[in-house]
Automatic annotation (TrEMBL):
Gene3D superfamilies: Spore Coat Polysaccharide Biosynthesis Protein SpsA, Chain A. Residues 3-149 form the Glycosyltransferase 2-like domain. GO terms for molecular function: transferase activity. Keywords: Transferase. The keyword Transferase applies. This is Glycosyl transferase. The keyword Iron-sulfur does not apply. It holds the Pfam family Glyco_transf_7C. Residues 172-219 form the Galactosyltransferase C-terminal domain. InterPro entries: Galactosyl_T_C, Glyco_trans_2-like, Glycosyltransf_2, Nucleotide-diphossugar_trans. It comes from Polynucleobacter aenigmaticus.
Length: 263
């Protein structure tokens, strides 16, 4: 089974769309664990309203709001996950109906997957948030007009799906295209590296650190582009005051690995 580890914080309107998109998956052999970094009761109430009629199990994990501590709540989610394969997703992302199926196709022993996203602009995001319910067919019927108007920044990856293959494999660690809102690995591998580094607080690069340590363990990183794209809703930029320090710490680990290799 697959476990979706769904990170959220105080945006229940977006989370509703995300969950509705997950409820219409072609592959329903998965569970959802919501990793809630201190949202208010509004998010809890939404989840409780959705849970009884949802086609798969939803577990809601919550921690007190003491700033950006996504790494801590995600580690709790990893621990309780019932699936042997983990897909990391953010609550401000909407998925395509074959999202689970496409990730399952890419799942491979000794590999991790870093997926891709399609950015939505502010006006399209506001429009979708007014929909009574998520409707992928309705969205897909307007793809070209969304692209021409700048509502989405990509078109073809939502129209064309490419299969599996060695061409997806990265030969070495690179920062590019690591998105914590869409990545996957085996639970055993996540546990083997101790999960996310909980000392990395504040927004920024905790996902790159996680991927680097998985690759450092010998895993091959595979691209999920042209297969697993998520629709990323527009939102204000997070507080990035910790981003530079977090990036510095990841670079230190990379340099330490390089020195170890050269000795």
């Amino acid at each position: 089974m697959i476990s979706i580890l769904l990170a959220t914080y105080n945006w229940p309107q977006a989370l509703k769309l995300c969950l509705e998109s997950l409820s219409t998956q072609t592959d329903l052999d998965f569970e959802i664990i919501i990793a809630d970094d201190g949202s208010s009761a509004q998010t809890k109430n939404l989840i409780e309203a959705i849970q009884p009629k949802f086609p798969v199990k939803i577990t809601h994990l919550w921690q007190e709001d003491q700033g950006f501590r996504k790494t801590r709540i995600l580690n709790q989610a990893i621990e309780v996950a019932g699936g042997e394969y983990l897909i990391f997703l953010d609550g401000d992302c909407i998925v395509q109906p074959d999202f689970i199926a496409e990730h399952r196709k890419l799942a491979q022993t000794d590999h991790l997957v870093t997926g891709s996203r399609v950015l939505l602009n502010e006006s399209l995001t506001l429009e979708l948030l007014t929909w009574a319910q998520w409707d992928f067919k309705k969205f897909a019927n307007n793809l070209l007009s969304y692209r021409l108007s700048g509502g989405i920044n990509k078109y073809w990856p939502l129209k064309i799906k490419l299969g599996n293959g060695a061409w997806r494999n990265y030969q070495k660690f690179v920062w590019r295209r690591i998105k914590g809102c869409n990545m996957a690995c085996w639970k055993a591998d996540a546990l083997a590296i101790g999960g996310f580094d909980e000392t990395m607080t504040g927004w920024g690069h905790e996902d790159a650190d996680f991927v680097f340590r998985l690759q450092n363990r010998g895993l091959i990183r595979k691209s999920g582009s042209w297969s697993t794209e998520v629709l990323h809703l527009h939102h204000r930029i997070n507080d990035q005051s910790n981003a530079a320090e977090n990036a510095r710490r990841v670079r230190e680990k990379i340099l330490a690995k390089a020195r170890q290799k050269n000795n």
